[in-house]
Amino acid sequence: MGENISDIIRNRRATPPRFFKGDKIERKVIELLLENASWAPTHKITEPWRFKVYLGESKDHLAGRIFEMLKQNHVFYASVNMQKAEKFTEGMNKVPVAIAIILQRDEAERIPEWEETAAVAMAVQNMWLTATELGLGGFWSTPEFLPLIGNLIDILPSQKLLGFFYVGKVGLEIPSPGRNEISLKTEWYD
Ligand SMILES: Cc1cc2nc3c(=O)[nH]c(=O)nc-3n(C[C@H](O)[C@H](O)[C@H](O)COP(=O)(O)O)c2cc1C
């Protein structure tokens, strides 16, 4: 894996769950990811990130509950894309670690939500880069039915579920989709 920050940034991949291996990840490794997450920039040090870590049977149980809830919703309330629901559930079952990414607004809502969301995204990037340095794959799953999942994992009214971050060993490396020349997206005023 990469030696310096530029290599690590370029080596970071979004690894879809089907390419993960199920091997357990040591708790110490997960703790390091979370600690590094908490060093992300945060306006007024609100530290707007909250995490719920799901492993083993708890994770598989959650995946099952999410699928059942989506099925019920589909039948009785709103239409849910059940193909996507199935794919999501399979993914959560496949990966060894699923971390719910939660945005927590501060009580006085001093910071606009977009800034807090940005801070949480930077925390996720810290986890993702740390995983890359350790040779582990990562994936940030944000299915469209995310708002329906909040209740199942006790998300508070002052919180918002921003998805699940998956981390684990990679069975099959996928090639980078690459990026366009940054000069196409940059204007210089020198
Ligand atoms: C906030 C966020 C949410 C994402 N959600 C998904 C997702 O739900 N499904 C997915 O296939 N990829 C998701 N991705 C990953 C992108 O598809 C991926 O970053 C892109 O394909 C570029 O690949 P790379 O990260 O390996 O360079 C997400 C990325 C971000 C930043």
Keywords:
alpha+beta; NADH Oxidase; 4-stranded antiparallel beta sheet; 4 strands; 41% helix; binds flavin mononucleotide
Q: What percentage of residues falls in helices of 4 or more residues?
A: 40-55%
Mean pLDDT, nearest integer?
95
Oligomer: single chain
| CATH C-level of the domain at 5-55 and 95-172 | Alpha Beta
CATH architecture of the domain at 5-55 and 95-172: 3-Layer(aba) Sandwich
- Compressed to H and E, one letter per element, the order equals HHEHHEHEHE
Q: Taking Cα atoms only, what radius of gyration do you get, to the nearest Å?
A: 18 Å
**Sheet bearing the most strands, described?**
4 strands, antiparallel
Q: Uncertain runs with pLDDT below 50, 5 residues or more?
A: none
What small-molecule ligands were found? flavin mononucleotide
Structure description:
This protein is an alpha+beta fold and 190 residues long. It has a domain at 5-55 and 95-172: NADH Oxidase, CATH 3.40.109.10. It contains six helices and four strands, in the order ααβααβαβαβ. Helix 2 (27-37) crosses helix 5 (113-133) and helix 3 (56-76) runs antiparallel to helix 4. Residues 13-14, 16, 140-142, 176-177 line the site of flavin mononucleotide. The site of flavin mononucleotide (FMN) has 8 residues, from strand 3.
Show the helix and strand layout.
Layout: H1 5-11, H2 27-37, E1 49-55, H3 56-76, H4 82-94, E2 97-104, H5 113-133, E3 137-141, H6 146-149, E4 159-168
Antiparallel strand pairs: 1-2, 2-4, 3-4
Helix pairs in contact: 2-5, 3-4
